[in-house]
Amino acid sequence: MGATEIWNAMDVARGARVSEIHSSSLTIDHSLLLPDMTPRIIELCKDLFKKWSKLDDSRFSVETVSGGITNLLLKVSVEEEKGKLELVTVRLYGPNTEYVINRERELQAIKYLSNAGFGAKLLGVFGNGMVQSFINARTLISSDMRKPKLAAEIAKQLHKFHEVEIPGSKEPQLWNDISRFFEKASVLEFDDSEKQRMYNMVSFKEVHDEIFELKELTDLLNAPVVFAHNDLLSGNLMFNDEEEKLYFIDFEYGSYNYRGFDIGNHFNEYAGFDCDYSLYPNKDEQYHFFRHYLQPEKPNEASEKDLETLYIESNTYMLASHLYWALWGLIQAKMSPIDFDYLGYFFLRYNEFKRQKEKHLLLAQSYLSGVGAG
Where, residue-wise, is CATH 3.90.1200.10 in the chain? Predict the structure, then answer.
């Protein structure tokens, strides 16, 4: 994808001819405060869903569900005729996120993932977002993910998620995406002199060499390729406590990828929004997760060999996860209007990569020499 070529949700919806998906050409200004945004959201809902087009505006209420560093999620409640209440979720894409997210890939995958019971149903698309069915559940916080019962449930769900077949190329996208991010990240210029000074501290030759070395090693692992979520942080996990039902949401980074990347990336997210990497799961916690991933019905029957293989895969690809999001942070520092220290985030992730690198590369090399000998 070229630097100027971006994905347009409307074109994708038309091109894919997704059945039963309503579309509108309206866009919503992401920067508006909720009271100013509400009339636009109501107008959008009326434009998308003809059954609501004649309803009085007073029958609509809009509230914020969550605002991440890339998306804004809104809950819309609509009082239909005869007092029936309908709920939908409106997701506004973060400004300029098309530079790092392939919307075509996302929208095509949602249909199949939804049919397999994952996430919310896609109801409509518009200029800079989508409307989905409402999920009645709470968003997890990072400390939830390490609770043994929830960790086991996440692992079981991830096993099922990785079994979903999405039509099209099954080529793993990790190194394609990292390469694309690297190309964009290495030619940025900032108007802000302090940002430019920080950016100039990045050695792109060093980063390039690190990517090359890690790719060479991970290629030797021959890790299984699955349709991966690639962004399984707490904000993309929801749980209904009464029904004890877990939901995966937001598949915008989803692609065919290495299973170890999806799991290693998830383990990195134990650090939470504070990026406290001392919270990265220890070997016992990881093995608890792996058992429920490998053998969802009989976790204690997972073989030692399979557990070790997954441990090596996940912790080697964990390093790739740091490189991926570090480069993503550089692009966001230039493209995103959101007030977040993306440049600082690059250094945080890259430094953690360097801190963890030697230990986990040695583990992988030792494992590979043992496999070769075995």
Answer: 139-373
Q: Indicate the SS3 state at residue 85.
A: strand
Q: In terms of Cα–Cα distance, which of 5, 281, 311 is closest to 147?
A: 281
Q: 100 pLDDT exceeds 50?
A: yes
C-beta of residue 358 within 8 angstroms of C-beta of residue 310: no
CATH superfamily membership of 139-373? Aminoglycoside phosphotransferase (APH), C-terminal lobe (3.90.1200.10)
Write the CB contacts of 185 (distance below 8 Å, at least 6 apart in sequence): 204, 327, 330, 331
Cα separation, 73 vs 91, whole angstroms:
5
68-72, 182-186, 241-245: range with lowest mean pLDDT: 68-72
In terms of DSSP H, where are the helices of the chain?
Answer: 9-16, 34-48, 103-115, 142-145, 148-161, 174-185, 193-199, 204-219, 259-268, 283-294, 304-335, 342-373
Domain spanning 9-134, CATH architecture: 2-Layer Sandwich (3.30)
* Nearest Cα to Cα of residue 12 among 179, 127, 118, 113: 127
Q: Exposed/middle/buried for 268, CB within 10 Å: 0-12, 13-18, 19+? A: buried
Q: Which of 48-52, 102-106, 272-276, 281-285 has the weakest average pLDDT?
A: 102-106
Can you tell me which residue has the tokens 């809950």? 75
pLDDT band at 371 (very low <50, low <70, confident <90, very high): confident
Which residue, 123, 134, 104, is CA-closest to 251? 104
Structure letter (DSSP) for residue 149? H
Q: How do the residues of the chain divide into helix, strand and coil, expressed in percent and rounded to 5?
A: 55, 15, 30
Residues 6+ apart with CB under 8 A from 42: 57, 60, 62
Listed in order, the ranges of the chain carrying CATH 3.30.200.20 are: 9-134
Which pTM was predicted? Answer: 0.89
Length of the chain: 374
130 has a pLDDT exceeding 50:
yes
What is the phi/psi pair of residue 241, to 5°?
-65, -35
